[in-house]
Amino acid sequence: MMRKICPVCDLPVNEINYCPRCRRVVKKPVYWNTDYLLNEKRSQTVMPVNQPSAATTTVNQPTVQTPLPGKGRSNVLLFAVILFIVITTLASVIISCAVNATSLESKFDTAVGYDDYGYRDLNEAEVIAAGEHCSGFEHFDTDGREISRSVIQFIEKEEHGYTIISQETYGDNYEFKQDGDPLTFYETVESIYLTPKAAEETGSDVDSYEYVDINYDTATGELHRYVSYLEDQEATLAFLKQFLLDTEAGCMVEADQSSVDSIIEQAQARINQREGAYILEGIFDVNIYLYEDRIQVYVSYNNPETVINQET
Questions:
Q1: Tens digits of per-residue pLDDT, 119-128?
Q2: Nearest Cα to Cα of residue 215 among 273, 181, 173
Q3: Looking at the predicted structure, is the pLDDT value of residue 226 above 90?
Q4: Membrane-spanning regions, if any (predicted)?
Q5: Selected residue with higher pLDDT from 45 and 302
């Protein structure tokens, strides 16, 4: 299966070359025909076509014995012949590897191709002055800045085994062409970086990369999405639930129309089974991905009108 991979973090990008880990459009993704990620262990059975295996480059070195009396000249000749064979074999292997590498590179260049789709960065001040939300995201009818503040306060108060080590706010505003029309993305992301509290208390040297992101429109502040990348299941579900509750409240969803309990119940069941999940409930589009030691959650807006139009 041909997969588009982010060259920075080795994770797949989506159909518009957006990398969820690096959180930006990748102009030149890597195309790789494989069923594993680039940073995972490769096996000999799934090596790329024309890629020489380690076995093909192994040459048995001759054993040189001490010549017997009267046999020196013939042994020297024999050694010269063997040495010639070894050199010839090594040269053949090197040439073969070079040819295969050139072939693979040529196929790679052909497979990748490159079209920037008219990509260009946009000035944040101009985006804000225009005052219109972007066209690349569906927007929740609530202020993402308020949601972010509420989620941060919840994490600080409840913790659920984590300590906030830093917070960062950054913008990424750009557009590119889709079917000839400009598609705009006005992203402001508030990132909360976390570390396990137990590791911090014991002074353990933990290489932890865990975070919660709230993404909203740079121009209008309307909420785009929620992303978390955490090891702890309890914290994952607790932070997710708080976000869902805050967002429903901001969108004026009536209590009897709430989807929060159903989403959390489904998410917990799938995580317990060590399976990912796609949950479409109410105003929420929830995707859950399970990695070896992390749980990643994406929540975006589910436009009920769009779903109805797709079904009719």
A1: 888 999 999 9
A2: 173
A3: yes
A4: 76-95
A5: 302
